[in-house]
Design brief:
With about 230 residues, the protein is α+β, with helices and mostly antiparallel strands. The protein is built from eight helices and seven strands. It binds zinc ion (ZN).
């Protein structure tokens, strides 16, 4: 991709429209269900920077080295603005809908939504694909918004099971229907890099609601999710 396009993509990614009100409604809903992350306070970029400095020093690294001097600030910006922006419900994306005037009432399925997350036990990358389906009622969601919702909940220190449930319940709340399916297939780099060092393992989690809980629908969804590797 030419550099100009990359810059445009980046600006688009940073400047997406947000809906904090919806974000905090969802926060309350996820708390009620006991599935929100253990978030205790807002993020403080300056304290994160100081902490990264302490961490590097504790590892025996000379933080005044020319190459490393700016690392604490750089990492702090990266953590708060990108890697963990989903900890802040002010960043929840604005969701757009279209009226389902055409009466489409079969599943809408988004496959292979790529995401990157971070394992909260080792702070190492989890990379994977999400498969999401819903049955529209009166309104259909803008398709790219499903990617945004997946990305928002991925951008936290996470465990895959909880992320699956958060995406499921966020969609259930937003679309006001039980007919939702979410499946995540992911590689945990803490498994590939340490301990058992298995390079091939991936982990699958899913949650089905409403009509997707019926065996025929469940099978159709899982087959479609398997179809495209
Ligand atoms: Zn881990």
């Amino acid at each position: 991709m030419p550099l100009n396009d990359l810059i445009k993509e980046y600006i688009k990614m940073k400047n997406y429209e947000k809906n904090p009100k919806l974000g905090y409604e969802l926060a309350a809903e996820l708390k009620r269900l006991g599935i929100d992350n253990p978030i205790k306070a807002g993020m403080d970029q300056e304290v994160v920077s100081q902490s990264v400095h302490s961490l590097l020093s504790a590892l025996g690294i000379a933080c005044d080295d020319e190459s490393i001097q700016k690392t604490p600030d750089r990492v702090a910006r990266f953590f708060t603005d990108e890697l963990f922006y989903g900890l802040n419900y002010d960043n929840f994306p604005k969701i757009t809908f279209n009226h389902n005037s055409y009466g489409y009432n079969e599943p809408v399925i988004s496959r292979n939504i790529s995401f990157k997350s971070t394992c909260e036990h080792h702070l190492v990358t989890i990379s994977g694909k999400a498969f999401v389906a819903y049955m529209p009622k009166d309104r259909v969601i803008g398709l790219s918004k499903i990617n945004r919702i997946v990305d928002f909940f991925a951008r936290r220190p996470q465990v895959q099971e909880r992320a699956t449930l958060q995406i499921f319940h966020a969609l259930k709340y937003i679309l006001q229907t039980d007919d939702i399916a979410v499946m995540i297939r992911a590689t945990h780099h803490c498994i590939t890099m340490r301990g058992v060092s298995d390079q091939n393992v991936d982990n699958i989690t899913y949650q089905f609601g409403g009509k997707f809980g019926e065996p025929v629908m469940k099978k159709e969804f899982l087959d479609l999710a398997k179809d495209k590797e």
